[in-house]
Amino acid sequence: MNRILVALDVDDRARALALADELRGLVGGYKIGSRLFTAEGPAVVRALVERGDRVFLDLKFHDIPNTVAGAVAAATRLGVWMVNVHASGGEAMMAAAREAAREAAARLSAPTPLVIGVTVLTSLTAEGLAATGLAGVEPAAQVERLARLALSAGLDGVVASPQEIALVRRACGPGFAIVTPGIRGGGATTAGPDDQRRTLSPAAAVAAGADYLVVGRPILAAPSPRDAAARIAAEIGS
Ligand code: C5P
Asked: Any idea which of 76-80, 183-187, 231-235 has the lowest mean pLDDT?
């Protein structure tokens, strides 16, 4: 299994597809987030799916169960391989997402996409959480709570920062997918300015228990994205 998911954090379809063409065969898939999706819409997802790529649609759905179910069904019809929802939307919402993915895939006789939960945004501190009403709750405790809830709702895994990999693995067991951004150092060193703070190298993240590594700028901003991806792949034996 190739664990590297490249975050296509660019604004236009031509650039996204050129990057995907350059990296194809070296990485395990491409993450399309709200930036590219809002700029270019589902056409860019279809273009990659048609090329046989695995697409992680990172739109972090968070709404009432019926609406999220509809969005996940639509993502499934687009042919995405992985999609995510906010775990804080609750167990019923996550279960509806899971069921919608299964039903839509069954109707198409297609594989069911992995449905992944987002726990606590890494940009949120204890003070930020308190301001949302969770006073006295440590972010790590909230991550664990939401990861357990995602597991019990039947989700396939969660997004976890490098600091949270081990605690999620302990809480949710070996079969639960852990998708980890914040990969830096080792083969994933960035040239330019960087806002990631709590980071792990590719090898350390895999050793800690990550199943998939989301890597953006260390590949996108490298002089040769292909060489950068190859270095990371070699480091983790992907
Ligand atoms: O460029 P970089 O490697 O930091 O890209 C990481 C990707 O993962 C970005 O798309 C970013 O939005 C996303 N992400 C993150 N931290 C999280 C969740 C998602 O960096 N906690």
From this structure: 183-187
| Annotated catalytic residue 31 | no
Which pTM does this prediction carry? Answer: 0.96
Tell me how far apart the alpha carbons of residues 70 and 79 are, in angstroms, rounded to a whole number: 14
DSSP 112: P
3-state secondary structure of 117: strand
The two three-digit tokens of residue 111, written as one number: 């594989």
Which residue out of 119, 214, 219 has the highest number of ligand 1 atoms within 8 Å of its CB and is therefore the one to mutate?
214
Residue 182 clears pLDDT 90, i.e. is over it: yes
The amino acid sitting at 13 is R
159 lines ligand 1 (CB under 6 A): yes
Alpha-carbon gap, residue 138 to 127, rounded angstroms: 9
Which mutation among 4, 5, 9 tests ligand 1's pocket best, with the greatest number of atoms within 8 A of CB?
9
**Cβ neighbours for 224, distance < 8 A, ≥ 6 positions apart:** none
